[in-house]
Design a protein that fits this description.
Elements: H1 4-12, H2 24-31, H3 44-49, H4 52-83, H5 91-117, H6 122-137, H7 149-177, H8 180-211, H9 216-236
Length: 246
């Protein structure tokens, strides 16, 4: 079966060099990388591990990936424990949250792209978009204190959409900063660091629920993690300048 995403891609995708909506500046940005080398430079991984720009991406993943895993695996127990919903009862709320997150996946890329087309630098556009996302996510810290299930669904759904919009811009950073032949390796490093963050956060969740039985501290972390991630990205790569020396 062909997925809806594949159908949409086939219908909408065009080569950037012939696409009517790709402007001169955007096309120049796409073409700025030199041709990929036939063989990747020796010591590429060691070089990447010593670059601040790599860790800007990796630490961003470290702080936000665990929150998404929390939404994936812990929302059903949260809805059960808080509203006593069973497997059938929390199905529709979970679906609504994930549908809202789909909107965020598209909106995050659209917003930063729109800002770039107005003349804003990629650095400012990406970071401003991520800041807006972090602010939209912040109300999730109040989730534990909301009595109505559908109000909570809306709050968490907006937070999930904010995560996906933030993540869309975070995933773009390696291609903004590194040559094409290094992008996959940087994303691999970031994915590994994000998985480590997910393991640590799962341990934290278990200790909190076993110790005090409240989701409040967990949602507090879920609301604040994006500001910490953005701060780490900015400190390590204040201008999102192209990495040199490859």
């Amino acid at each position: 079966m062909v997925s809806a995403g594949v159908i949409a891609w086939l219908a909408l995708y065009r080569d950037p060099h012939t696409h009517k909506r790709v402007g001169t500046a955007e096309l120049a940005h796409i073409r700025q990388d030199p041709a990929d080398p036939q063989v990747k430079p020796k010591g590429l991984w060691l070089t990447l591990l010593t670059r601040r720009e790599t860790w800007a991406f990796a630490l961003g993943k470290f702080f936000i990936d665990p929150i998404w895993w929390f939404y994936l695996f812990w929302l059903p127990p949260f809805l059960h424990d808080t509203y006593h919903l069973n497997l059938v009862g929390f199905g529709l709320p979970i679906a609504a949250i994930y549908l809202l997150s789909d909107v965020g996946s598209v909106a995050g890329g659209w917003l930063s792209g729109r800002l770039i087309r107005t003349g804003m630098t990629a650095n400012k556009a990406r970071k401003l978009t991520m800041l807006i996302c972090a602010c939209a996510i912040l109300p999730v810290v109040l989730t534990r204190y909301v009595d109505h299930v559908w109000i909570n669904v809306l709050i968490i759904g907006i937070a999930a959409a904010g995560h996906q919009a933030f993540s869309a811009n975070l995933y773009t950073l390696p291609s903004d900063i590194f040559p094409r032949f290094a992008v996959g390796s940087v994303i691999g490093i970031g994915g590994t660091v994000g998985a480590i963050g997910g393991m640590l956060f799962s341990m934290y969740i278990g200790r909190i629920l076993d110790g005090i039985g409240s989701y409040a501290p967990i949602f507090a972390v879920a609301g604040g993690a994006y500001f910490v991630a953005l701060l780490a990205i900015h400190l390590l790569s204040p201008r999102l300048a192209r990495a040199k020396g490859f």
